[in-house]
Design a protein that fits this description.
It is a single chain. This protein has two helices and eight strands, in the order ααββββββββ. It is α+β, with helices and mostly antiparallel strands and 115 residues long.
């Protein structure tokens, strides 16, 4: 008797597992950039470059890259700690990916990882 009540549920579950998911609206985050994405990036002053865990990102060269800094507000982008000198230096590009030491808005050293 209980089987008759559960039969419709089991049939629905079985049919749901057979659905075609190839026509999904989801975007593949690992796909190469489309011509439209490249054009939008370039129109905003950027260029396509490596993107951390992603295969690409729209990257921007920063005008104050390499200049000395004591806090993040001194730079267009991030104030990175140069591992050789242990001094702050404005990032040359944005966004920055990987694990880095930076100086925050108060000038305090922070270790962060950006994927």
């Amino acid at each position: 008797m209980w089987f008759r009540r559960l039969s419709p549920v089991l049939i629905c579950l079985a049919l749901g597992a057979c659905q075609d998911t190839s026509a999904s609206d989801e975007v593949d985050p690992f796909a190469p950039p489309t011509e439209q994405e490249i054009a939008q990036c370039e129109a905003s002053g950027g260029y396509i470059g490596s993107g951390g865990l992603m295969p690409w990102a729209c990257r921007y060269d920063l005008s104050d890259g390499g200049q000395a800094c004591t806090r993040s507000t001194d730079c267009e982008g991030m104030c990175l700690v140069n591992p050789e000198t242990n001094l702050g230096e404005c990032a040359a590009v944005s966004p920055v990916f990987g694990c880095v030491s930076m100086l925050d808005e108060r000038g305090e050293r922070v270790e962060i990882c950006i994927d």
